[in-house]
């Protein structure tokens, strides 16, 4: 059983896989200052008696990396920590590959493998819209190459910033409004946050898709993912597919590729309980 762990700025997603089949998936709040022992207790509590035979991890939280490395060093199973220098098979067609977050790399890998391959084996471009702490719109080429993308604040971050900077505005529950014209402050904020961000995404996707068509002669598949995708995806006109946990699928694929290319067997065998 493979355990995949995607440590994001706001949430950490853990999932187990039996081959390509995802079994369990959990979302927990990321605690940047958690110690290795605290992470160990969290993982064991979620996994219970699940026998783990490998672990794949990526993190966008530098403060948690020391504790993660300490925990991973204890494990007696094959471990892959995605970061600079770890081969994922994703060509990075950007100015500075080291600037690209590990989560974006493995998400691009999953997007290509799950949505970028036609039945006849040929490739097609994919656009990934990740609704999280930030809103990212990334382009993946028909051969699985990461082409770059656009970064914008996440909807919750924007709402918190607005509430803290505007004296007469406050944080509200984020739900899809019934109409764009808000009749009160709460409805107006919901319209601006949800429908406004949907419009932002649709605009970026349209521009990126046009560039992909000009470069490759094919329209991309547009896939939504991330913890906030359920709030926004139905208000977006440009999204055709959805997979809330695309990154953990990418971690599985990256683990398989890394283990295959390195021939590594990890630290030996164990009971498999992290």
From TrEMBL:
Residues holding substrate: 101-104, 185
Q: In which pathway does it act?
A: Cofactor biosynthesis; coenzyme A biosynthesis; CoA from (R)-pantothenate: step 1/5
GO MF assignments: ATP binding; metal ion binding; pantothenate kinase activity
The active site is formed by 103
Q: Tell me where it resides.
A: Cytoplasm
What EC number(s) does the entry state? 2.7.1.33
One GO cellular component this record assigns the protein to is: cytoplasm
Which keywords appear in this protein's UniProt record, sorted alphabetically?
Answer: ATP-binding, Coenzyme A biosynthesis, Cytoplasm, Kinase, Metal-binding, Nucleotide-binding, Potassium, Transferase
Q: Where are the transmembrane segments?
A: none
> How is its cofactor bound, per UniProt?
A monovalent cation. Ammonium or potassium.
Q: How does it assemble?
A: Homodimer.
What biological function has been recorded for the protein in this entry? Catalyzes the phosphorylation of pantothenate (Pan), the first step in CoA biosynthesis.
Record's protein name: Type III pantothenate kinase
Species name for this entry? Modestobacter caceresii
């Amino acid at each position: 059983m493979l355990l995949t762990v995607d440590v994001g700025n706001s949430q950490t997603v853990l999932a187990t896989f039996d081959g390509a089949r995802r079994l369990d998936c959990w979302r927990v709040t990321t605690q940047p200052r958690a110690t290795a022992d605290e992470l160990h207790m969290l993982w064991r509590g979620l996994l219970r008696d699940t026998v783990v035979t490998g672990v794949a991890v990526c993190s966008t939280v530098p403060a948690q990396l020391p504790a993660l490395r300490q925990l991973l060093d204890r494990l007696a199973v094959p471990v892959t920590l995605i970061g600079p220098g770890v081969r994922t098979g994703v060509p990075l067609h950007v100015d500075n590959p080291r600037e690209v977050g590990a989560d974006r790399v493995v998400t691009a890998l999953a997007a290509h493998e799950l949505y970028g391959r036609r039945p006849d084996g040929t490739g097609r471009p994919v656009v990934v819209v990740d609704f999280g702490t930030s809103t990212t719109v990334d382009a993946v080429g028909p051969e699985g190459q990461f082409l770059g993308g656009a970064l914008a604040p996440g909807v919750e971050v924007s709402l918190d910033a607005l509430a803290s900077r505007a004296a007469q505005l406050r944080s509200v529950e984020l739900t899809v409004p019934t109409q764009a014209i808000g009749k009160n402050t709460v409805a107006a904020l919901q319209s601006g946050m949800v429908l406004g961000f949907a419009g932002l995404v649709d605009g970026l996707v349209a521009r990126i898709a046009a560039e992909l068509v000009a470069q490759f002669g094919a329209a991309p598949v547009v896939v939504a993912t991330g913890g906030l995708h359920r709030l926004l995806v139905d208000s977006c006109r440009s999204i055709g597919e959805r997979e809330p946990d695309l990154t953990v699928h990418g971690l599985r694929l990256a683990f398989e590729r890394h283990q295959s290319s390195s021939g590594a067997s990890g630290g030996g065998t164990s009971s498999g309980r992290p």
